[in-house]
Specification:
Helices cover 33% and strands 26% of the residues. By secondary structure, the protein is an alpha/beta fold.
């Protein structure tokens, strides 16, 4: 049967504005007639004439609606002049794997089907984002163009009769409007695993994991949380590094993540935390739904904050062959992330960058060879091997540090604090709040802190006293392309370096998520209990923001 191109009339949907990591809505929204088709057409149109004859990568985290969305996108790409589409088997690709495939195939970009760490299932969340030719999330200029097109779209193009079996690894070729369209269904894991082999010394890591040197195998608990990383975890840690089968759990990707909330933090990865705390484990790790976030814990569930994780990896970059070969350039963190890595950058005499939340802000710096390692407090860590944060990479980096030092997780952290001091840090999340009231809260707080009289004010809580040094709504001027990002989060910085940060998250699918960040530096008292050390600043933050008054919440949904 001949395949023909159809042009389907449509009308715009409100609210198709990508957030920090694409467009996220409930599944029932994406499954409305023409909703997915409209947004995908706008992604392709935002690339202009470059889409003709291009190569794109397509895959997602396997959540509910992922397979159907993949099939729709194949048909739309076929109708819009895409020459080659690289699709993960069964529509499955981790977000780091998409970035790797884009870069290794010199593709124009990739379409990633994920709502990341948000819950999955027919009543929960779905998402679509576009990654550019460097493998990273689309910058603001592209997402703004996508949104503008979405407000005026009147039709989309599709090859409705095209049928493809995504379960079989194969090259599929079609003739459409006298042009060849190729769909390569590829092994979801192979390209990414090859990249990890190039970055890390798998022989040394296998010796660590199997106990060849020490005589005692490393006891690990790796939780894929029924997300996309299951296949990657089994191939890397079982097949390549020789871990025992009981070292990995929840490695089957499920459409609803098996009822788990695929967010690797102390609240939603409670099973991992409880198991490691009560068992004989040297290290525990969890990854989110699409594989770009990670949580690391040590023996007895000793928690490593993402800010500390970034700083430790930065200190030990020489333990990773990739950096010995390619060198160490700058380091970076998102603005809300505690400034522990800044101290490492100073010691290494490297540039340090503070960027807004959103991995896309690291990309220009990496492409300009100004940045090699970066992280976000939201459990994201990565390097310039791709242009996404990378959960499995972070665990392999920690294993490399353990192999290099001969120490366990807790001892590595305590030695780091003894050398650099400690940034006590916490984040409070208030999820699904009333968006209107939250916007009013942020407006009122901004008025308060940007009043010139606010600087110099003293706040008291218990025996602690803090004097305001800087207060603003964070702005970032990209040193490479000079683009400006404004209103990126409210900051109150005190004279001792302690900070209060508040922002509204761009990754939720409904309502508003308020994030409150507290960061306090101590040079000597590095072994205190974080909740005790941060309590005075938390009380001051709640006082300044009037958060309970505006949200009606007396406690956060999640504390990390």
């Amino acid at each position: 049967m001949a395949l023909t191109l159809s042009t389907i009339a449509t009308t715009p949907f409100e609210g198709q504005k990508p957030g920090t990591s694409g467009l996220r809505k409930k599944v029932k929204v994406f499954t409305e007639k023409n909703y997915t088709e409209n947004f995908v057409q706008c992604i392709l149109d935002a690339n202009g004439k470059a889409i003709e004859g291009s190569t794109l990568v397509l895959g997602g985290d396997g959540r509910y609606y992922c397979r159907q969305a993949c099939e729709i996108i194949v048909r739309i790409c076929a109708a819009n002049g895409v020459s080659r589409l690289i699709v993960g088997q069964n529509g499955i690709l981790s977000t780091p794997a998409v970035s790797s495939l884009i870069r290794s195939n010199k593709a124009l970009g990739g379409i990633v089907l994920t709502a990341s760490h948000n819950p999955g299932g027919p009543d929960n969340d779905f998402g679509i984002k576009f990654n550019c030719e460097n493998g990273g999330p689309a910058p603001d200029s592209v997402t703004n163009a996508i949104y503008k097109l979405s407000t005026a779209i009147s039709s989309y193009k599709i090859v409705e009769q095209l049928q493809i079996d995504l379960s079989k690894i194969a090259t599929n070729t079609y003739q459409i409007a006298e042009k060849t369209f190729t769909v390569d269904v590829v092994d979801s894991v192979a390209n990414y695993v090859a990249l990890m082999r190039d970055i890390f010394d798998f022989e040394k890591l296998r010796n660590l994991v199997t106990g060849k040197v020490t005589g005692k195998p490393l006891k690990m608990r790796i939780d894929a949380m029924n997300g996309v990383t299951g296949d990657y975890v089994r191939e890397i840690f079982l097949n390549c590094l020789g871990a025992t089968p009981e070292s990995v759990v929840h490695t089957t990707p499920l459409e609803d993540f098996g009822g788990l909330h695929p967010d690797p933090n102390l609240t939603y990865a409670k099973d991992l935390v409880d198991t490691v705390r009560s068992g004989d484990y040297d290290i525990g790790a969890a990854f989110d739904g699409d594989g770009d976030r990670n949580m690391i814990i040590g023996r007895n569930a000793f928690f490593v904050t993402p800010s500390d994780s970034l700083a430790v990896i930065a200190h030990y970059l020489e333990a990773i062959p990739y950096f010995r070969k390619n060198g160490v350039t700058g380091l970076a963190r998102s603005m809300p992330t505690a400034s522990a890595v800044d101290l490492v950058a100073k010691k290494l005499n490297k540039e340090i960058f503070e960027v807004p939340t959103g991995w896309k802000y690291f990309g220009n710096l990496m492409d300009a060879n100004r940045l090699c390692l970066c992280g976000e407090e939201s459990f994201g860590t990565g390097s310039n091997h791709i242009r996404e944060k990378d959960g499995i990479w972070a665990l392999l980096a920690w294993l490399s540090v353990m192999e290099h030092t001969g120490k366990g997780v807790e001892d590595i952290l305590k030695a780091h604090w003894a050398s650099y001091g400690r940034n006590y840090f916490t984040r409070y999340d208030y999820e699904e709040c009333d968006a209107g009231k939250c916007n009013t809260m942020m407006e009122e707080m901004e008025k308060l802190i940007t009043d010139p009289a606010f600087v110099g004010q003293q706040f008291q809580s218990g025996s602690k006293s803090y004097v305001v040094k800087v207060a603003d709504n964070f702005s970032y001027s990209d040193p490479i392309d000079k683009s400006l990002a404004t209103k990126q989060g409210l900051r109150v910085v005190f004279a001792d370096g302690s900070r209060i940060v508040m922002r509204l998250s761009g990754t939720g699918s409904s309502g508003a998520t308020v994030r409150l960040y507290i960061d306090s530096y101590e040079r000597e008292n590095v072994l205190g209990l974080a909740s005790d050390m941060l309590k005075p600043l938390i009380e001051i933050a709640l006082q300044i923001s009037k958060l309970a008054q505006f949200t009606g919440r007396n406690a956060p949904t999640v504390i990390t």
